[in-house]
Amino acid sequence: RERQHQLEMQQLIETFPLFAKVDEHSQEELLLLFRPKSALPGERVMRKGDRGDGMYFLSSGAVEVRLPGGAVRLEPGAFFGEMALLSGGRRTADVIAIDFCQFLVLERRDFNMFTARHPALRAAVSEMARERSQMNALN
Ligand code: CMP
């Protein structure tokens, strides 16, 4: 069982390299905080203008972020929904499932609690948010 668990953790880190930034104990904690969620093709996962309820990690399937300049496709290993959590503002785009999707969701209060204790993780997520908003400002 222990071995099985280690394999699971290893897979998770392979899919989401971001998690390599935290120690093993905290990776275990993350596994407990994540809420599994799924979506059907065509389902809206996030609505522009809504309050941010959580950050989503895409473990299988694909989503499209619908932006004025066009759609951006995200694949397994990607995360989204970080921008509204970091800014305390609203969702900046609609996100639509374009396949059967499975997500791991870190709810807002867990995101705040966890990233407060892991500055390197928070910095990496912030950097991605910064790149995305910069990209959106150009389109
Ligand atoms: P948030 O604004 O909370 O909700 C919509 C999400 O879409 C946003 O967080 C980002 O995670 C994601 N997103 C916005 N712009 C882009 C982009 N240019 N490329 C990829 N993802 C984006």
List keywords for this structure.
43% helix, 4-stranded antiparallel sheet, binds adenosine-3',5'-cyclic-monophosphate, 139 residues, globular, 5 helices, alpha+beta, Jelly Rolls
What does this entry show, briefly?
The chain is α+β, with helices and mostly antiparallel strands and 139 residues long. The chain is built from five helices and eight strands, in the order ααββββββαββαα.
Give a topology summary.
Blueprint: H1 2-15, H2 24-33, E1 35-39, E2 44-46, E3 54-60, E4 63-67, E5 70-74, E6 79-80, H3 82-87, E7 94-97, E8 101-107, H4 108-117, H5 119-138
Antiparallel strand pairs: 1-8, 2-7, 3-6, 3-8, 4-5, 4-7
Bound molecules: adenosine-3',5'-cyclic-monophosphate.
Q: Structural class, from secondary structure content?
A: alpha+beta
Number of helical stretches of at least 4 residues: 5
Rg estimate, integer Å: 15 Å
For the record, the count of structural domains works out to 1
Question: What string gives the helices and strands in order?
Answer: HHEEEEEEHEEHH
CATH architectural name: Sandwich
Description:
The chain has 139 residues and is an alpha+beta fold. It has one domain: Jelly Rolls (Sandwich). Helices cover 43% and strands 27% of the residues. It is built from 5 helices and 8 strands. The strands form 2 sheets. It has a 4-stranded antiparallel β-sheet with strand order 1-8-3-6. A hairpin with a 2-residue loop joins strand 4 and strand 5. The structure holds adenosine-3',5'-cyclic-monophosphate (CMP).
